[in-house]
Design goal:
three-stranded antiparallel beta sheet, globular
Amino acid sequence: MNRLTRSGILLALAAALLAGGCASLVARQPTISGGELSGRLTLAWHDGYQFVAYPVQGDELTYRLPKGHRLADLIGEIRPRLMYTDGGSIPRNFWSFDGLSPWEYGPAFILHDWIFSRHYCEGDKYPVRLDEANDILLDAMILLDRQLAAKHRRRPHNKEDVRRLIDAAVTNFSAHAWENG
């Protein structure tokens, strides 16, 4: 499926959801939840919509897997290194909708991109499965919203509806990128 077709499918999905409200989306609980998210990264514009993500030395963006999950014993944490990214792969047509910026959940999107790049480079040697990558994205978005709430700030939109929409799109359309790089 080419990028234009995927964008068209996402556009149709989002239009249907926005017209009917997000009530039709069921809030999915990730099978990986309760991880820890910390650290920072720096972005530098590269070309077009591509950015280079640089780890902040000594305070790298880190997602620690929850104890008891199989990945906690295998890799322990996910710590993206230098990489190219477009943030969230949200079609440009949606950027004007509250919450659908490619950077709304930037650290979560970077983690997801990093997992995909590791899968692409290492194949089956990298132990994270597609469903786990998508669960880590969802858990990281939940963690980011909790961190924001702890600072007594909130997103200007309904964060649960946005998370459900992003999760539905990722769950339904990420397999192609996972399988084809």
